[in-house]
Amino acid sequence: MHNLQDTITAPATPAGVSALAVIRVSGAHAIAIANQCFDKNIENAEGYTIHYGHIVDDTVRIDEVLLSVFRNPHSYTGEDSVEISGHGSPYITRRIIETLLKNGARMAEPGEFTLRAFLNQKLDLAQAEAVADMISSNSEASLQMALSQMRGGFSKDIAVLRQELIDFAALIELENDFGEEDVEFADREGLKVLIAKLLTQIEKLRSSFAAGNVLKNGINTVLAGKPNAGKSTLLNALLNEERAIVSEIAGTTRDTIEEVFTLNGMQFRLIDTAGLRESSDTIEQIGVGKTKESMRKAELLVYLFDLSTTTPAQLGEELKALPPSGQTIVVANKAEIGRYTLSDWPESTVFISAKELEIQPLLSELERVASHYELGNETVINNARHADALAKSSEALQKVLHGLDHGLTSDMVALDIRNALFQLGLITGEVTNDEVLDSIFTRFCIGK
Amino acid sequence: MHNLQDTITAPATPAGVSALAVIRVSGAHAIAIANQCFDKNIENAEGYTIHYGHIVDDTVRIDEVLLSVFRNPHSYTGEDSVEISGHGSPYITRRIIETLLKNGARMAEPGEFTLRAFLNQKLDLAQAEAVADMISSNSEASLQMALSQMRGGFSKDIAVLRQELIDFAALIELENDFGEEDVEFADREGLKVLIAKLLTQIEKLRSSFAAGNVLKNGINTVLAGKPNAGKSTLLNALLNEERAIVSEIAGTTRDTIEEVFTLNGMQFRLIDTAGLRESSDTIEQIGVGKTKESMRKAELLVYLFDLSTTTPAQLGEELKALPPSGQTIVVANKAEIGRYTLSDWPESTVFISAKELEIQPLLSELERVASHYELGNETVINNARHADALAKSSEALQKVLHGLDHGLTSDMVALDIRNALFQLGLITGEVTNDEVLDSIFTRFCIGK
After folding, report:
1. CATH of domain B220-371
2. Min Cα–Cα distance to chain A from B182, Å
3. How do residues B382-438 score in pLDDT, each as one tens digit?
4. Is B135 in Cβ contact with A88 (below 8 Å)?
5. Cβ(A229)–Cβ(A304) under 8 Å?
6. Domain extents for chain B?
7. How confident is the model at residue B255 (pLDDT cuts 50, 70, 90)?
8. Biggest alpha carbon distance in chain B?
9. Burial class (CB in 10 A: 0-12, 13-18, 19+), A370
10. Residue from A9, A18, A54 to probe the interface with B (highest B Cβ count within 10 Å)
11. This prediction's pTM
């Protein structure tokens, strides 16, 4: 991997003309290198102090800056670090970086500052991953989950589980040491109870993944209904509520998702179902198939019908024809017609008038759905890598249980326990390998 | 204008997912307001110190941040100020700003931080304008000129001129006080000499405007020549030299200019002349007219011809047909054909092969042109507002001179001197009005 003896630098703020731009420098020589590029002597500056001066390339002035000094270990990376806050011109940022490189720094790889923080034990691996979640958070729910994971609650839970397993392993390995003597230090029945307890905890964490994913990425929602049911009008009404906020969130990846709106801090990601109609055209059929697939995967289906033209019998047929999906909210649109009998329609039907912007009954339903996913005091995981490691830990523990039930030798049991320990260690980074670190940190942005 | 008693806040870094985002707060209550949004007490924190902690909205944690404290007058604005450096998520930035607003700050207007710096006499007006030039600088030449103006050399020159005028005015006004008595405190001949000196200095500054404009905005260059002379190939060869650098400069406004490349820190802005051909189409004629107009305004014309198909006589005709413009470089392309007689062509002709990327002779010529504009020790102005004020000062001084020559009464002379003083004062901001301030600072980006 990267050479950690190097002093690294990178811009920490987005390129663009702006008031300020911040450049980070970290490593053993950070302060010495910055000192060579600065017109004041900061070699003996204390940590957590700010210094006003100019960045100079030999004798040429580059910028008037504020320079912040951080002393090992009291910095983000745990190394000596400097942050240079200059004028927000991409040209100036480039010139400052060039000057730092000329004086011995090298460009940081994406995520290398956080990697160093991890390697210097300022963060465990799950916390380092939460930093990336923090930066990409775009709703209150995703922000609060990232903050909760940065506080380390999740890692501590995992560490407790792992410690119990280590205690297990110690006893079993002790039995191995006695080889042929057939002693049992570890009480087999006690072990089984403990493993069952561990498995319950792991399953609970694993099952929190769906909710965690929703908190992080929003609720995948399909808005369906026949043409002219009023889907576009409803969409506009929903987005109108949130347009000001949505438009401020830059950099949201949309992929195949058409629109995103936020309600009570929870994002709803609306999947387009325009293509959902019968067709004899082969290519169009593939499109319809994909839409139906996304409906099956959706957490929520909002099914809209036109109250003024649909009979209860027709609605029944329409609902029957839907592919199976998660929760469904049936919405009667065009309630402005005013003459309908509530009892004619399914009890849970929500009546709105998208045209008149009377959509509060639907918003209340959406809030109810969102509240299911609210972040409580329970630990929630949201990272596919963690879910995978938990699944593999679970598998290894099941094997241990199976081995105990079938009188497997203690060395075989110990092997499965060690495997589970390895998988859990991968989550917090107590066990690491370059490949795992690489795949985690290269997904970070540069300068972090 | 804005209420300067308010404490203001704004993001200071561009929106976007990144390592860091910086939010500025400035005003009498900056530290108190930030203190209410922070989970550590910073009320008594010293200036130029950094504090690690969390931004909190009541009890809800928003972000883990570094908070820098600046104490009046030792801050950018001259007021108490706080800079909050948080995670680079647009959502988090918005939440932090919301929290600050909730606790009594208001959103800053564009340029309001710098406006406050000016009003608190941290900068004069010309220096404040140089801050905007700094941020938009995109070449070494524009950066160095902005830095030079921020150092205040230009303002000091103006202030010296203005002081001499004030001394004048005092004597003349004294004469007015004596009314009918017909005394002359101010030596008329001495005054004329002094005004002539002032006019020379003003003219020198005014005439530096063209060079200043070039340093700031680059050299307007027209690349012309018959179809198939190799303009596109040359353009690619020129841009290829600089592509890596050019592509890094984000946010360059191009307007009608097609391509920009940098040579020895100087930008060349290439104007498209694709439309330069005879046409009977009325609309196309307008286009050609505009192109010819831009050629007339260009500082530099690079005229390319095909050495393999053009005769010296034809070239003579082509050059004669060109509209008058600034400097011209005649470039013979396709020098790879190898058989031509140097003496057949104008002495200054530059021979290149765009196809073979042998364009060094042209680059040398361009460097020679660029060196004309190099920033020496002389004061250079680059701001149309300053040029205008200098023109008006000059006009007023001419009037004074004319008045002296024609025995105008001292009160009339004093009026013209006062007008010149007013115009010069507008540049440094010793004289201001809201309209001028508004037009200057609303052009700043938010957060500066």
Report:
1. 3.40.50.300
2. 55
3. 888 899 999 999 999 999 899 888 988 888 888 888 888 898 888 888 888 788 888
4. yes
5. yes
6. 8-123, 129-208+381-429, 220-371
7. very low
8. 86
9. buried
10. A18
11. 0.80
